Amino acid sequence: MPIRLIATDLDGTLLRPDLSVSPRTRRALDAARAAGIVVVPVTARQPRGVQRIAEAAGFEEWALCGNGAHGLHLTTGEVLFEAHVEAAVQRALAGALSERVPGVLFVSVRRGGEVFVAQAGYADIAHFEDHKREPGEMGRHLLDDVLAEPSLKFIVRHPELTPRELLAELRALNLGGYAVTHSGAPFLEVLAEGVSKAWGLARLCEKLGIAQSEVLAFGDAPNDAEMLAWAGRGVAMANAEAEALEAADEMTLSNAEDGVAAVIEELLGQPCSTAL
């Protein structure tokens, strides 16, 4: 069955290490679109983070943001869906984890990803690259304010523990009502129960009338694993983490070597391996 939709992660996958879209990758994406294939960014970023590279990549249509929790059209602004972590779930998680791991900090990303409510102390350990947002814009809120409203993404971070270490502590709580993942960034990303990139992609494909077997997906991080396993053809980057590699059907070159472009070129019968 032919490929009708390409779903690609951004950071560590489509983008080079300097966060640029290479000319070769742009040509490959344009060739796919010209062949009638829908190209969809599927990312942990919020819409504002996607818009930063949309022009360079030619993204003008559907995007799946927040690890699949938020589906929207980049040009019209139409929202296909939003899935929120309920406030009661956040409060239970924050209370139990704070008792187990003192010093943990939380952020609520709300209202289409535009509102970022960070607990006091979070901005002090954050960098622009973490959220494509200046730390000075994050605010310094009381925990009660962070937990007051449902979140598209609920961020959990510790000044000293790695995301994998923090994930082990969170799982040890044995709570329910949410999903949790991480993307290579220095924090965990808590989503509504059942939500993943695969979940969001399945909903978009249903709207577009595209079968699971007609999807080609690319990724590199643990938060890409469900999508790579779900897609008819899942491709992990050479720089991918173990979870993505195990979930994928195959591996391509690294993001520094334009691995996404290499697969698209092969798919379309347009090899451009010497292109820069």
UniProtKB/TrEMBL annotation:
UniProt keyword S-adenosyl-L-methionine present: no
Q: InterPro entries, alphabetically?
A: Cof, HAD-like_sf, HAD-SF_hydro_IIB, HAD_sf
UniProt keyword annotations, A-Z: Hydrolase
Question: Which Gene Ontology cellular component terms are annotated?
Answer: cytosol
User: What SUPFAM superfamilies does the annotation carry?
Assistant: HAD-like
Q: Which GO MF term does the entry hold, naming one?
A: magnesium ion binding
Looking at the keywords, is ATP-binding present?
Answer: no
Q: Which domain of life is it from?
A: Bacteria
Extract the NCBIfam families matched here: Cof-subfamily (TIGR00099), HAD-SF-IIB (TIGR01484)
State the PANTHER family in the record: HAD SUPERFAMILY HYDROLASE-LIKE, TYPE 3 (PTHR10000:SF8), PHOSPHOSERINE PHOSPHATASE (PTHR10000)
This one is known as HMP-PP hydrolase (Pyridoxal phosphatase) C
